[in-house]
Amino acid sequence: MRTITLKMLAAELRLSPGTVSKALKGSHEISEATREKVMDMARRLDYVPNPYASSLRRRTSKTIGVVLPAMADSFFSMTIEGIEAVAGDKGYHVLIYLSHESYYKEAAIVKDFQSGRVDGVLISLSGETWNTDHLHTLTDKNIPVVYFDRVCEENDVARIATDDMEAGFAAASHLLEAGCKRLLFLSPSDNLAIIKRRLAGCRKAAPGIASLLCIGDLHQQHLRIREALAMPDRPDGIIASVESLGYATYQACTSLGLEIPSDVKVVAFSNMPTASLLHPSLTTVEQPAFEIGKTAATVLFKGIEKGYNHLSEESRMIPSVLVPRGSTAKA
Amino acid sequence: MRTITLKMLAAELRLSPGTVSKALKGSHEISEATREKVMDMARRLDYVPNPYASSLRRRTSKTIGVVLPAMADSFFSMTIEGIEAVAGDKGYHVLIYLSHESYYKEAAIVKDFQSGRVDGVLISLSGETWNTDHLHTLTDKNIPVVYFDRVCEENDVARIATDDMEAGFAAASHLLEAGCKRLLFLSPSDNLAIIKRRLAGCRKAAPGIASLLCIGDLHQQHLRIREALAMPDRPDGIIASVESLGYATYQACTSLGLEIPSDVKVVAFSNMPTASLLHPSLTTVEQPAFEIGKTAATVLFKGIEKGYNHLSEESRMIPSVLVPRGSTAKA
DNA sequence: CTGAAAGCGCTTACAG
DNA sequence: CTGAAAGCGCTTACAG
C-alpha cells in the first residue's frame, strides 16, 4: 500500500501543501469550507502525517524518554502507568530505557538524548550513579529533566519523591515499638541519595542501627542477608530499603528456619500487591507509585511547554505510608 | 548550547557534508585518513546526529512499538525486560503504549503506527479485542507485527506464546489429582484466544469445569469470585487464568473464611515473584516471560531486517511450567 | 576518494 | 484566505 503524503493529499484537492497543512492543524487563517474539504479528503485517503518530517521541521519530537533501573519491579511498573497516562493525554509518546543499575549504560542512554530524540526526560537513577554530569548536558541543551524516586542530591533540579527521611524514621520507630533491639538496614547501593536518606531517617529513631550493603541479584542478596542472620548477635529487626531485599529477607529467614515475626521482624519499602497475602503478611512502606509517575510527568510537561525555567520549584515530596502487618507483630 | 549539525562539522573540517556523512557511517569509499579526521572532530565537537533527519531520509526509524494491556503485571513487565534487552543490542528504541484492555485505545495506538513512527510492532492484545483488522493495515504497509502471549487466532501471523491448551490441561489435571470435584475456571475476557485455549485445555481434563467471567479491577474481580464461593455447591478447585485473578481469589477466600487448600485449592497462571512466600504458597503455571519477550523481539527484528516475509513461520510455542505448591496440597 | 545536488515530508515566514 | 519558496538535518545516487 502506497503511503499517502501531504503533497499527494494537496494534489488531490488542488490546493497547495501549505494550505492543507494549515487546514489540518485547524489554523484560523483557513476558511471553514476549505478546512472541511481537507479533513474529508484526509479521512477518505486515510492520511497519516509523517511524525519525523514534522519533528525535523518543528524541532520538537512529541516524545519523552524514561530511564529506569529496572522494569520488573512493582514500584517502577506502576510508575510507568502514571507516566503513560499523562503522556497519552498530552499526545506524547514514551520511549523506555533500562539502565540495569549501570552508570555506564545510563550515561550512554542519556547521551543519545542530546540528539533531540526526546523533548524531555524522566529518570530514576541507577544504583551505581555517583554523579549527574551526564544529565547536566541535557539541561545545557534545554531539554528538561525531572528526577523521580531515585533522585539526585542537587537542589536546583526538579525532584519528585517521597519523604524518605521521614519514612525511614517511621520504619525504624515502628520496629523499636514492636520491641526490636538490634536493627539492621539493608541497602542496595552506596550511591543513591534516597537510600542514604532512608538510613538517616532510621538513625534518627535508632542511632545504633547497622547497615548492610546487598548488591547483585536476588540470590546474592539472599546469601548476604543469610550471613548476617546467622551471626551470633543477629539482628531482630530488619528494614529492607527496596522491594527485592524484602523478598530476599523472607527467603533467608525460611532457609535458616527463623520465624517472622517472633525471631526477626521485617519492614520493607515495597509496593508489591501481595504484601498482605504473604506468610506472614509483610509490613510495608508504600509509595504512591502511580501518583509519583503522574506528578513527574506533569511537571515535565510544564517544563516542556513553558520552556524549562525554574523547574526545581516544581519539586514535590509525596507522602508514603507505613502499613503495619504481621511481619512486625509484637510477641 | 548550540546544537552542532553535520553541516557545521563538515565546515569545520573543510569537507562536504556528504563525505562527512559517509565517513561517520564507516563507508569504505572514504580514505582511512579522512575517516579518522572526521571521527576525531565529531568527538571533539560532541556531534550527535539528529535521528529524525536520518529517519526521514532513510525511511526507517530504528524504533519499535510495544502495545500492552497493562504494565503493572509481573508477566508483562518481565516481558518488556526481554524486549528491551534485544532492542538495545540492535540499537533500536522502544516506544511503549498501554491499551488498558480497551479495543478502542488499542486501535488508536495501532493507527498511529501507520505514520511510519515505528519499524515494527510487538503486541499483546487487549481483553476487549475481538478482531485484528487494525493490525492488518500495518501488514499492508509492510510494517511487521509479532503477537506475543495474548495472540490472535490467525495462522498466517507471527505468534510467540506458551502452549496454553497444554497448560490448561496440566492445571486442571493437577487439581483433579489433588482431589477436587468441582472446578471453576476464572476468565478475564470473553475474547482472548489464549484464555479460550486455556479453558479448552482444562475441559480436556475436566469436561464438567465451570467458567466465570470476571472483568473490572481487582476489587470487582474479588466480589465476583466471592459470590461464586458463597454458593451452596461452591467449587473446591479454582483455576485463575491470569495473575490478578489469583490475588482476587486469595482475597475472596480470606473474606469468606475459607481455608486454602483444605476448603478450596487454587492454581494461578502467574509470574509473581512472591508465589512461594504467600500464605499458603501458591501453585502457579509460570510462563517464561523474559524469554517470550526476547523471542518476540528477535523474530520481529528478523522481519524488519529481511523485509517481512513468512514471519508466521517464525511462530514459537514456548513451554510453561506448573509449579505445585501449598495451595493445591492434598488433604 | 570527494563533492554537488536532490530530496525525504513536513511547516512557516512572507507575499499577494 | 491561499500559495510559492525556503529549509529542518540528514543520505545517496551520480559525476568527476
From TrEMBL, chains A, B:
<dbReference type="InterPro" id="IPR028082">
    <property type="entry name" value="Peripla_BP_I"/>
</dbReference>
<dbReference type="Pfam" id="PF13377">
    <property type="entry name" value="Peripla_BP_3"/>
</dbReference>
<dbReference type="InterPro" id="IPR046335">
    <property type="entry name" value="LacI/GalR-like_sensor"/>
</dbReference>
<keyword id="KW-0804">Transcription</keyword>
<dbReference type="InterPro" id="IPR010982">
    <property type="entry name" value="Lambda_DNA-bd_dom_sf"/>
</dbReference>
<feature type="domain" description="HTH lacI-type">
    <location>
        <begin position="4"/>
        <end position="58"/>
    </location>
</feature>
<protein>
    <submittedName>
        <fullName>LacI family transcriptional regulator</fullName>
    </submittedName>
</protein>
<keyword id="KW-0238">DNA-binding</keyword>
<dbReference type="InterPro" id="IPR000843">
    <property type="entry name" value="HTH_LacI"/>
</dbReference>
<dbReference type="GO" id="GO:0000976">
    <property type="term" value="F:transcription cis-regulatory region binding"/>
</dbReference>
<dbReference type="GO" id="GO:0003700">
    <property type="term" value="F:DNA-binding transcription factor activity"/>
</dbReference>
<dbReference type="Pfam" id="PF00356">
    <property type="entry name" value="LacI"/>
</dbReference>
<keyword id="KW-0805">Transcription regulation</keyword>
